[in-house]
Structures are given as structure tokens and as C-alpha cells.
Amino acid sequence: MKHMENHLKQTKGQVRTRFPPEPNGILHIGHAKAININFGYAAAHNGICFLRYDDTNPEKEEEKFFVGILDMVKWLGYTPYDITHSSDYFDQLYEWACELINKGLAYVCHQKAEEVKGINAPPSPWRDRPAAESLQLFHDMKNGKIDEGAATLRLKVTLEEGKQDPVAYRIKFVPHHRTGDRWCVYPTYDYTHCLCDSLENITHSLCTKEFQARRSSYYWLCNAVDIYCPVQWEYGRLNMSYAVVSKRKIAKLITEGLVADWDDPRLFTLTALRRRGFPPQAINNFCAKLGLTGAQIVIDPEMLESEVRDVLNVSAPRVMAVLEPLKVTITNLPSDAPAQLEVPDFPSEPQRGAHRVAFGSEIYIEASDYRAAEEKGYRRLTPGQSVGLRHAGFVIQLEREVRDASGALTELRVTCQPVATAAKPKAFIHWVASPRPCEVRLYDRLFRHKNPEDAAEVPGGFLSDVNPDSRTVVTALIDGGLRAKVYDKFQFERVGFFSVDPDATEQKLVFNRTVTLKEDTGKN
Fold first, then answer.
1. Does one domain contain both 376 and 271?
2. Which of 430, 461, 490 is the last residue of a domain?
């Protein structure tokens, strides 16, 4: 109680949470839920949330991951109260480890890693060695006198799952990102995070359900070194269908050349979702709607995509682009027809602004907006059916086709009539005039099965389940006057929502399809 009284004196009852990622990979959609819960719970109670890097494994930590994690936290709209590192507390953690040895609650063990795996691993023959002997060996470990893998420091505690004596320190002759060559013993997550929580006066350790098995270790450690003990609450983690989020498996996809990098838009890392064009508010809305339960949940990507559509529908200006261009020449366009048209950015809300597009006798339409033969239920251009041009004020009627020597359709010759005097067409189609070419990348699900990690469903493993058609690149035509910068988002009318890719240059725009205009029922 004296520790709690001191804690309340320092914090004045303020809620304090922390988001503690390991800086050895890029954050994914599951981390977005954790970010929303930790930062959101603190904000809802007028509290604060720390970003604490769990930098206890220097073998896998890189600067790009430290930078990338903070970048994604800020991208989602959150600002940490403070940015800390587990390595900030290495001296204190080492002192407490020595204290545990002196209390007979920790010991140096020489069993190999494979010997201590599993629930019913044999007890360590060194469990009852004298404290003085363990303390000297621990100092030797710290001073580099014992080989890597030849000794660990273990705690005398049994976890809920039955695992006995978890490792607290191991030897690694690897320089640390922040402390250099000062240390060659590094604490484990199980040992570190509860003690760091106490040092930072965290009130709520919010973590995913798999850490429930370590709750007893969390409380035991704080009590064993006689310090303030926060409370640990667990919630169900988030998994996505048709995806893998394991850092090791994503790294394997990259090394095998199946995806380009951590930000490949087919992945569910946060950098990938940003590159694809997912707005951060859509991800936050998605996390909020999941609610909080103890059960592990697996969500179909369509639920996230639905949130993306809802946000982009009111925020992405409309433009016209043609993904499968077919040239159309209007043979009787009036001489007084405007060379430029004013098109609203949001047709249902014209007061929100407009942009100008070129217009003329030579335009391009989607090849799928023309059928050479009449087709029941088809509402667009055919030899016997006219169609309207969006925003142009004209209806066009086929005059004749132009085909090359092989018989392939290369052009349509059409006549036009003002909308006011023409028979009402069944549909209006988009088009472009005086266009510029651009690269458009169309994405589908990366995996063919709902659970690519299910050995029964995918006997060859997740690498064999990659969808070869998950990425298609086309050269499209877009209004030549469009100016856009990286991550700008647009709705290509009648086509989908698209975002400017970082590969774009002033000379060549590159777009990623974020989502289609509505759920693609053919995906399954």
C-alpha cells in the first residue's frame, strides 16, 4: 500500500498507459487496435500514453523500425506523452536482477534453450545453487566472461500455463542501437516490461490475451523487488482473413520476392495500408467498431474496406480516368462546343468546389462501355443504343467502327446531340480528352484462402497460397490537367478509389487502387 500511496502522490490519480512495440519490424493492423486501445483509453480518462520501445533484442533492431513505428503512431493521429526505451532502464533492471539473486528468487542456469522448451521441461539442476555463486556468474555474464548460450538468468516462478522458471537475462555479443557495446547481457520482455511499467508509473498494462499466461510473472516480479505494481488487463487480439501479419512470415514473403517490401500495398502492415490509400480515420473507425472482448477475433478485410469507402466517399474528389482506353471521334461536334468544362469535385455537393477538364472531338472511353452486338440488360453504347457523356452535355450515337488489319477495334466514330434535344439515354459514361498516360496498380487479396496459415486448408504452407493475380498494372489515361502529390486520394468516377503512390513523379503519375466503389462479390 505504501507504493500505491506514493504512486498516487506522483500521478495524482492520472490514468497512464503505454504502447510498447518491439522495434524489429513494421506495425500491422493488429497494432492499430493496440494503439487505439492504449491511447484511446488514456484519452477517454484525461490521461497520458507513453510510446516505449521494447529494445531488448539488439540482433533484430534497426533504425528504420524505430522511425517507422513513431511515424505510424502519428499517422493514426496520436501523440505520445513521452517516447521512452526499455534500454533507458538497463542499469536499474540489472540492479533488480542482482537483488532477486540475493533473495534466492533467481539463479544462473546452464541448460540449453532446447532443454527448457515446453510445459513439462525438466527442472534445472542449478536451481538451488548458492546465491553468491549465481551472483558471481551473473557478473561474469555481464562482463563477457561466459560464452553466448552457455548461461541464462532464470526466475523462480511458475506461469499460469505451467511453464517454470522463465528466462530473465541472456547473453548476446551484439552491439545495441542505443547503448553500443556497454552490455552483452540483455533482459527478456517478460522480465522487462512490468518493471518498466512500474518505473513509469503506468496505471494499466493493456495487452493482448496471450499475455494472460504471464500475468502472474508480471505481478510476482513487481512484488519480488518491492515496487509499485500496475494492473494488467488483457483483450482479444485482432487477426485478418486472407492475410499474414507475423514479422517472420512477412520477411519471408519479401525475401522470396512475392511482395516488394514491408509497405507492399497487398500487406496489412500500416505502411502498406497508407501506401494503398487507406485513410487513418477509417482504420481508427474500424478499430472502434470492433469493441473490446477477451475473445480472439478474425475479421474479413471487407469490414475494413467498408470503413475506407465511407471515409473516401466524403473526402476524395471525383476525377475522370479511363483504365482500358478506346478512342472515340465525334464527327459533328459543334464549332462552338466548349474546349474546357467545369466539373464538380463532388457532384452531389457542387458547393464544395470544381475543377476544369479538357473537351473536344477526340475523347477516350472505357472499352467495356461499348458492345459491338446488342446485349440484354446492357445500358451503355451499342450500334443501336446511344449513351450520355458525363458532365459534357452531349449524347453520342455510333456512326461506324474502325478496325485494323487484324480485325481489332481501334476507334469509334460517333455523332453527338445536345442532351436537351436528344432522347434520354439509359446511362452516362465517363471519358477523358487531351489526356496524359499514368500507371495504375490494381490490387486484390494476396492469398487465395481465408486462412493461409492453416496447414489443413493449405498443405503447401502460406507461400504456396499467394494469389498470382493479386497485382495487375495497367497504363491508363487521366485528365491532362490533373495535378496531384503523393498520397492524394481521388475517386475515379464509376471505377473506384485511388491514391497517388510514392513512386509517382512530375513526369509520370502512379496510382494504387485503394478499394472498388462497392464490395466485389466475386472475390470469394
1. no
2. 430
